[in-house]
Amino acid sequence: MEAPPVGVVAFNRMAFGPRPGDLDAFEALGGTDEARLLAFVDQQLAPESIDDSEAEARIAASGFTTINKSLSQLWVDHAVGDPDWEVRIRPVVETQLSTFVRAVYSRRQLLQVLADFWHNHFNVYGWDFWEAPVFVHYDRDVIRPNVMGNFRTMLEAVAKSTDMLFYLDNWQSSKDGPNENFARELLELHTLGSENYFGAIPRNQVPTDGDGIAVGFVDEDVFSVARCLTGWSVDGDPWWDPTTGNGIYLYRHDWHDLAAKNVLGLDLPANQPAEKDGRDVLDLLAAHPGTGRYIARKLCSRLIGDQPPDGIVDAAAAVFTTQVDAPDQIAQVVRAILLSDEFRSTWGDKVKRPFEIAVSTLRAGDADFPFIEGNGDTDTFEWLYYNTGQYLFGWHPPNGYPDFKEAWISSGPRVMGWRLTNWLIDVQDSADTYRMDAVSQTPPQARSARAITEFWVDRILGRPATSETSEELIDFMAQGRNPDFDLPLDTDVGTQERLQTLLGLIFMTPEFLWR
Amino acid sequence: MSEITRRGFMVGCSAAIAGLAGSRFNTLAFAQPTADQEVLVVLFLRGGTDGLSLLPPISGADRGYYEAARPSLAVPTTGPDAALPLDAQFGLHPAAAPLLELYQNGNVAVVHAAGLNEANRSHFDAMEFMELGTPGLKNTPTGWLTRHLQSSAGLPPEVIMPSLAMGSSQQASLRGDRETVNLVDPGVFSLTTGPWRWRDAQRTSLRHIYTADNSLLHTTGNKALDALDVIELYVDDDYSPANGAVYPDTGFGEHLATVAQMIKLEMGLHVATLDLGGWDTHTGHGYWVPLLIEDLAQGLLAFYTDLDGGGSQDFAQRLTLVVMSEFGRRFEENSDDGTDHGHGNAMMVMGGSAIGGLHGSWPGLASHQLFEGLDLAVTTDYRRILSEILIRRLGNNKLGVIFPGYSDYSPLGVVSGVDLPPDYGEQVFANGFESGDLEAWSTHQQ
């Protein structure tokens, strides 16, 4: 599929779609495509330099009560004393709502895209009994500060996070019978990836590199890593009531397996000091070339297409490995991907998922939409969005939501996505104004069906639709009349509703889904 | 392969639908094309089900090994929570009591120690291997059910709903199938949002847009519109189960009821997939497993009862439901009231043509009998069970297409039906199937 203008590519793959004015601003960033993309990427990779007052003001006005609480406070207020379910899940509810606010209204778009990527990479089901009360901490203190930082740093932050310790059971793992849940996913999902899993075979059948380190892992390594991480726990009684403690990471040396271990061929001697076994494992995994390649491939799949060419995966993996100690290691990998030829020239090897559909719809239509707990429109949105199958922080298994076309093109997500966006173009605020008011955004000179349609196609897609789609959209707006005659858009309610419906139709087109 | 088409549901509108739909369809031609249609329902238990809780050993040396390995989690043989004996050797978990009567009536076949021949303790790899039908390969572009639907000779060319995938996305076993209706809840599967005045016109335009091209998104979007038409027109939101069936008040229960509803509407449904998740019990095994088994057993009983009417309502007679999971759990419990990932597991086949009872060969639980000294071994390749259903119930013997690389099928005897010689296709050579050929095949399909 031929790639659209580079600004459209950039806003659809390193952002959640353009808002009004975004593509014009992109064009003004330089004299060539390369110069414009370079300027945009470097701007987005320095998020603190981007004024984000609109998103911040909206967050401040949303009435959130939990997103600034410390971990200890979250624990005390939302876990201790077994509060009502609504109180218990309030932190994850507000994280979900603030994530929408930021995705729609933040100008730090790449930051939001990467937060979504890493949340799924280090997936935690946020609506669970023990995870929900402190989910604000997982999002704010564990994931977000690291999304452009150093992978090794992020890995340890995740491994010691209250939510991950609960979610994959490591907080209960002791030398008496190590729990393999986290250890396995650490290897298979977080670092080496299943592409480097050799299955249930003896380790000596796995090839090694020059230092005797295995190129991939087997079940024996899972068992060893589980032992290395015994004692990485949470303060609180894991057998009776975790709220006897403070909910913060706690290393329990008396639970730790002190015997010698071997992971991927690396010998770990007996009786290492506190946490050293686990840290050695994280060091080994974060620096392993298999990890670099797996993470690079996953980032390329997110930012370029489902089947990224080997060349860019190799290039990104090389940056990951050579910059393994850099504080901005991930930013450098992402930069290499975004500035590659493959990024600019690839189009149509990826589709929007429900999260991207919902957010890019609100952005393209410049909607003024509330994400406020208890607001009726927010509630309806959440219910319609839930049915799309991509409820935020709602994926139960540890692998995160699927990130390839085939998972999202069947009738379920398609129809549920249409149902959601067709509601968004119709919902009105208490003053009976559309939250995505099309009439007021249509330039006064555009009054014919053709001109109106062309304006909105350009606004939403940033490029022309196919001629077939385009004709059908104009026909819809004209409803049997000459498409070049003016419509009574400023006075006739039926015409105004027709325009809102036209927006809904554009959001339902195949063109809107490709990216 | 049957296609879902608009023409299909105009000519294919069954008597069952006509009865429900009444005057809405009095201008359409009615036919009843699917009254003898076999239905296969594939239930996947996600997370790795503990077959040793579902079907624990209750006697002999294995009982001793089992109690030693599971000091806190073994299903007892005495007391109020005792296993329900199926024979001298195995019992059923007490929470599975609803299945006992079905089992005793001969409607449930159980195969212990089944699974993937190649051990893999990754959920995601093992699920893909099983559902794509190509153990060892996870880039296969189509699922095993997709290839059955594509290669089956006897299916009617056009039906209203050839296949149904319950859930937020299509299961990997149906990957690449474009005729499948996928949904979570028929009650919300509609386009009743947007200004009502322009709804019909918008829908007409949408159909025009999606029929204008053959891109992936166009063809799948057009099928989604077909699915929407089918559900909006034919499916009543208010479904009442028959024969006193009571589905559990759970998401699983709702999904089963929806499948039953679609079968009864006689829309040509031939394959349905659904899931029951939550079996990854690294902790809380003792708490969760009984609840999960209860949901499973109550759901299956309700489903069977609902479909088991007399005369023209005897849908159970042409039903085959298979229950599978990606792997069993570790023989020894861990220190956290849990069990880690294992290998061999139990599979179940339920239906009017099931040959009830315990099947397969039992590998034993002595440490030298365990896989890697850790897990229940696999003595029955899961493909053997599915192949038997394909051949004996669905009349499709093209195993070389559906399970490329599988070449030593023989029936185990879990369902009755006519045997056909397996067709392994041209890729299979006398000395077996080489992995290089399999890789080439997989690449070729893309």
Q: Can you walk through the features of this model?
A:
The complex is a heterodimer of chains A (515) and B (446). Chain A is mainly alpha-helical. Among the domains of chain A are: 9-148 and 328-345, no CATH class; 164-287, no CATH class; 438-513, no CATH class. Chain A is built from 25 helices and four strands. In chain A, strands 1-2 form a two-stranded antiparallel ribbon. In chain A, strands 3-4 form a two-stranded antiparallel sheet. In chain A, helix 18 runs parallel beside helix 20. Chain B is an alpha/beta fold and 446 residues long. Chain B has a single domain, classed as Alkaline Phosphatase, subunit A (3-Layer(aba) Sandwich), CATH 3.40.720. Chain B has 14 helices and 13 strands. Chain B has helices at 6-11, 15-21, 51-54, 60-69, 97-104, 123-132, 144-151, 199-211, 216-234, 251-264, 285-307, 382-393, 399-402, 435-445, and strands at 3-4, 39-45, 84-85, 91-92, 108-115, 158-159, 163-166, 180-183, 271-276, 319-325, 345-351, 357-359, 380-381. In chain B, strands 2, 5, 7, 8, 9, 10, 11, 12 and 13 form a nine-stranded mixed β-sheet that branches. The longest helix of chain B has 23 residues, at 285-307. The interface between A and B is large, with 69 and 69 residues.
